[in-house]
# Entry
Amino acid sequence: MRPEPGQVLHFSEDPSIARFVPHVAATARQPDAFVWAVDAARSPDYWFPRQCPRAMAWATPSTTDDDRARFLGPGAGERVHAVEYGWLEAMRTVRLFAYRFPAERFVPMGDHAWVAVEPVEPLGAAERVGDLFELHEAAGIELRVLPKLSEFWASVVASTCGFSGIRLRNAR
# Structure
């Protein structure tokens, strides 16, 4: 589930949103109100239940061979996502939806998101995302299951890999 050219996506467990209005997210680091979306490259970051903590790492041009072997390992491709065992059932059963938006209504926010400052209506009805495990497999992203994310996360942020962590406050 990725946006088509000229689109960005918003993922939600609510399939009934007809209009997205800018708001200040509870976890926001800035005081401005936005409608949040992601592009094709960052869509896999959201193939999870909303509150699921996840740590993600990927190869970049500056990733060393040692870090590539340590974090991505043989057979892992260019990207790995890690979750805790306690979230497996939620990943199997969550009803996750994607909303498509015209990208021209959004501007980039850092290297990970797109934001709109005006209300935005989706380009049609919410689309069921489907099996999250199958999405990861089809994208060639290794999904790693760990007892706790903290050790993996501490190591990844100190490495030469690219990384992102979402909802880590919900981790064990």
